[in-house]
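#struct-help
A.M.: can someone run this one for me? Single chain, 270 residues.
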Amino acid sequence: MKRNEKYTIFGHNGFLGKNIVHYLKSKKIKYFLPGKKIKFSKNLNNVIYCIGVYDVLNNPSKAIDASIKLLSQIIVNNKFKSFLLISSTRLYLNTNKTREIDNILINPHSKDYFFNSLRLIAENFCLSQSNKKIKVVRISNLYGGFFKNQKYFLPNLIRNSIKKKSIHITINKNSKKNYLNVNDAIQIIFKIINKGKYRLYNVASNQRYSLDFISSTIQKITKCKIKFSNQKYRYDEPIINIKRVKKEFKFKPKNDFKEKLQYIIKEFNI
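D.P.: on it. Structure tokens below:
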């Protein structure tokens, strides 16, 4: 990555955005962080779009604006050298076909697919543009620094274990989730921006971890109580096919979630 490059980060207050800004600072690379009132018709250089809405069902208008309206306005009304949309491997919900070339399943009758529908529209808009510098990365669950104030599943569990002294697991405790070190994700994001041959990539770990392991690790450190319910329903996040990014960039996930989880939990107590 060249130091004379400049990056515009949309979503810089979120977990991934904060980590990207921290990385750019460490490399002494210039960046621009847009405010809430965004003026268009600018040269935004290299854009990374990682705006997300946590609770899309309770904030549908905000989710639609962030996923589609603002995204399309930025692409249509601005000049940029490259544009990267951060999407999610959650798009592979209820399927084991997880290659970038595989079709995505959407069930319009289920609210579980509303988030996926928005992501898919955003991806389709980006990838339907003729500009080959517009790319998409589907990323799995992340962990790492700047986790404390986030509202995702894992930080919520840790926060509740400390503040409420209890956590509640609402699906089968043997259900598995894919977690990737945020630093691994960032390293590969910039390689994809600058050298990626394709326009769509999966970026994920090649290991999954059970909710039982996650909750018991939290319990050991915070001494909280664990409540399990709805144990008949098990959902394993699918194994994500990352052959494309492995072959092109020799990508090797650290798979250090077991070690880092203890450090992350202790960080919440500081």
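A.M.: thanks! The chain has eight helices and eleven strands.
D.P.: also worth noting: The mean pLDDT is 92.
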